[in-house]
Amino acid sequence: MTAQRVISRERGLDESDYKWGFVIDIESDTAPRGLSEDTVRFISAKKGEPDWMLEWRLKAYRHWVKMDKGEPAWANVHYPPIDYQDIIYYAAPTSKADGPKSLDEVDPELVTAFNKLGIPIEEQKKLSGVAIDAVLDSVSVATTYKEALEKHGVIFCSFTEAVQEHPELIKKYLGSVVPYTDNFFATLNSAVFSDGSFAYIPKGVRCPLELMTYFRINQADSGQFERTLIVAEEGSYVSYLEGCTAPSRKTHQLHAAVVELVALDNAQIKYSTLQNWFPGDKEGRGGVYNFVTKRGKAQGVNSKISWTQVETGSAITWKYPSVILQGDNSVGEFYSVALVNNHQQADTGTKMTHIGKNTRSTIIAKGISAGQANGTYRGLVKIMPSATNARNFTQCDSLLIGDKCGAHTVPYIEVRNSTAKMEHEATTSKVSEDQLFYLQQRGIGVEDAHHMIINGFCRGIFKELPFEFASEASQLLKVSLEGAVG
Amino acid sequence: MSNIMLNVRNLHASIGDIGILRGVDLTVNAGEVHAIMGPNGSGKSTLANVLAGRPDYTVTRGEVLFEGRDLRAMEPEVRAREGIFLAFQYPIELPGVRSWQFFKSAVDAVRTHRGEEEMSIRAFDRMLQEKMQLVEIDPELTKRSVNEGFSGGEKKRNEILQMALLEPKLAILDETDSGLDIDALRIVANGVNQLKRPSNAIVLVTHYQRILNYITPDFVHVLLDGRIARSGGRDLALELEEKGYDWIRETVEAGAQPGS
After folding, report:
1. Residue of B nearest to A460 (CA)
2. Would you say the ipTM is above 0.90?
3. Among B204, B205, B209, which Cα is nearest to B240's?
4. Which residue has the higher pLDDT, A434 or A70?
5. Is A457 an interface residue toward B (CB < 8 Å)?
6. A101 part of contact set with chain B, CB < 8 Å
7. Interface contact flag, B106 A443, Cβ < 8 Å
8. How do beta strands A210-216 and A130-136 pair?
9. What is the pTM for the complete model shown?
């Protein structure tokens, strides 16, 4: 029911306005700096993984080493080269390296820390209606409401646990949507992914709770490489939320996650993200490099996958939650608000690949740029020859605040079936002086006036979010724009 | 005890380098209705906007006192909270901003400024229902985004609705009558009349004497080239209607004292 406390705390800030910037003081078990086959083996051994899992990681690692082109260069983001040998690939709170057996075993320090983040994981304070998997650095530290979910046959656990407990499902679906060869960052993730969430909704079950994963980077110089896999069996439904924060640090941190969704016949997955990784300070120092591959496969007939994202954090965001519309009559949706302020850069959008007949996709992307930041929408709508009567509607709106920021829209449309119907709308506007004065003349201060206009601009997206998340998203925009207006 | 609400002395204002107001004097007391008339470009809307604090306008000389306090030192939102309301000539569309939310935020901003509690949702809804009847506005409109897709008449009525909700001390109506058909004009005028109190004042900026058939002004001022060229009572408006603004211009140029 309520996830809103994720952002409504005021503690632990340093000189920046980022309110989640504190460091959790907890001992950590870390891998040696740098990346080699040994690192991959180290991570796998730490998790006590079966051989097949290690082999898969090693295949990915060996492929990654051969990717001599390095990182994708086409995105409209600029940053100094990343030294992949200077990153710590595994960090786990020592007390629970193998994960707590029950919530009572969770380190009290961690409980306090997550409470500080507004994520109650103690038994008695659990958020009603939301099952949470809390991931700190490389490991999942707690999952709430497991038993309640089990009654419905829903599996919701850490990825590590899933590898042990549900190997047949992992073997079947891991890499089935994002293969380990997919792209530089996804391949890296496949080699070194540490933890993440796994959710499985059995046939015909409407998941009774919202599932939520809360990700937190804590350790300095560590990367976070989580992996999430959600499988919705025939006729099932699940709504999944993720939230993310990180401490304020002067150095950049790498976050390269992979999310795979599979929806079978008549299944629906609704995936919502509030991304609030540390964006760096006002001068652009520090901040998370957020290079994420998210893709869903609407595999079955009449299946539906919806991505809703509110992206306000990270120094750099490179992210294109996509849908492969394979099943006939399947539906893909992408609703996005991406806000950049100060020196943030975001290149984000989606890919809709229509394969099945009568497939429909909707893309609504809202970009807000302030300060000296640059935001880019990049999207591909691809209609394959088999996709008879495919439809797409795309709307990209950009809002500029101030005169030093930029908004860019790069839509690609590729149609190979003449029955396709495509619509594309795009606008770019500024918060107008007239609108501000109108609101001020009604007694509303400049900052609140901006907030109201921006909320109005994002309204179509916020209504796609679960109710409690929507008010949080609105607050998040407000906090992220502090100092940009007025 | 003085009941002077607004005291404008020798007001000069410009947009960029262009001087528009060139020495306006105007005194408005509580309980009065003033009509400001004048031809296009005479500075009527500028005067309305300067009083509300629109940022594009610069006051270059003179003073403006509202209840004895210097308005120039107040941000537009503070003026609004203090009780100055401007009904816009061209009400602004706010895409995605729910009218209900907008109205409530405005009402709460004024209340908070006065040290009062924000209104409960229920009390606000009740008040909104009541005020909507006053301006005969379709309740559906308040469920939509502010002014988005409204007709010209609906926008104007929406302004009067906001005036009714905010109960300002000084309401400035900037050509609220233009573009209204006769029914809408009657409704708007009726709304304004019902909001008249001994404790508040209304400044009507208008081209036409038509609205003055419905709202009876205590004073009529004719603005010409950025100055008030003549002030009078209700009859002045009728005389203007008959003789046109050139008649004033001629008398001014002939050396008659402005504001006689």
Report:
1. B96
2. yes
3. B209
4. A434
5. yes
6. no
7. yes
8. parallel
9. 0.82
